[in-house]
Design a protein that fits this description.
alpha/beta, two-stranded antiparallel ribbon, 35% helix
Length: 260
């Protein structure tokens, strides 16, 4: 069974203005075993660019509300500037990186989110095809995936990067790959009320931490995606610190069956 490492990088880890400034991170990523697949966000940079353009950034429970103007900003920032800067930095370290978006090759098709809150052009995955990613991996490339999806009718959608990573990981696991899914965050893991990293986390603990307000905002959708991935039979799901790579330390997410 082939072991696939899937790394999700938050946009805060890509905050440099130049590819050369990403060299330390790229050097760490180059030490990871292959096959390797990277999914990245870019919310921080998208919000900053939107502010420069006079576009208001709005959120609900840690999830971005995306109107047409904000969607354009997200596409430019994540699928464009950040994706290519990271690819360039990885190439400089000898990693055969290929930058794509989740819409490319029909990797992820999404449906516009419906509900009591109008999120605008936000998509939730409804189907996916990992064949393009498998082709790249089999050819020795490292796919670098931006979280822009589509609805199958020509409309681009903004999909949470954690959700994209979890969806891709679940499909590889279903195809009998040994998947290790790591979400990299500045916190290095989920922390308790004293600021200490919790080594393992189950849903019951998460409910308690959420109720007490210790886990909130952007960590909520991240953990939703992490638990969904863990419940799909993925060998390892963890919230870790990027600056400690290639060592993996942080919070391991336990599937529901182990939390019972």
């Amino acid at each position: 069974m082939t072991t696939l490492h899937i790394l999700k990088l938050g946009g805060e880890l890509l905050s440099s203005d130049r590819s050369s400034d990403l060299a330390p991170l790229a050097s760490q990523l180059a030490q990871l075993p292959q096959p390797l697949l990277i999914v990245h966000g870019g919310g921080k940079q998208s919000t900053a660019l939107a502010q420069q353009l006079g576009i208001e950034a709005r959120f609900h429970n840690g999830r971005r509300i995306t109107d047409a103007a904000m969607l354009d900003v997200l596409v430019m920032t994540t699928a464009g500037l950040l994706n290519k800067r990271l690819v360039a930095a990885l190439l400089a370290e000898g990693v055969r990186a290929v930058g794509i978006a989740a819409c490319d090759g029909n990797i992820i098709c999404a449906a516009k989110r419906r509900g009591t809150v109008e999120f605008g052009y936000v998509g939730d995955p409804i189907c996916a095809d990992i064949a393009p990613l498998r082709a790249l991996l089999d050819a020795g490339f490292v796919p670098v995936v931006a979280p822009i999806t589509h609805d199958g009718s020509g409309q681009l959608l903004n999909t949470n990067a954690d959700t994209v990573a979890a969806s891709i990981a679940a499909l590889f696991a279903a195809a009998e790959w040994d998947v290790r899914l790591w979400f990299c965050t500045p916190s290095g893991g989920v922390r308790d009320a004293c600021g200490e990293i919790i080594p393992t986390l189950d849903r019951q603990q998460l409910a308690m931490l959420t109720e007490r307000g210790i886990v909130r905002d952007g960590m909520l959708p991240k953990l939703e995606a992490a638990f969904a991935a863990a419940d799909c039979g993925i060998a390892e799901v963890a919230i870790i610190a990027a600056d400690l790579l290639p060592h993996v330390r942080g919070t391991r997410i336990l599937p529901s069956r182990r939390a019972e």
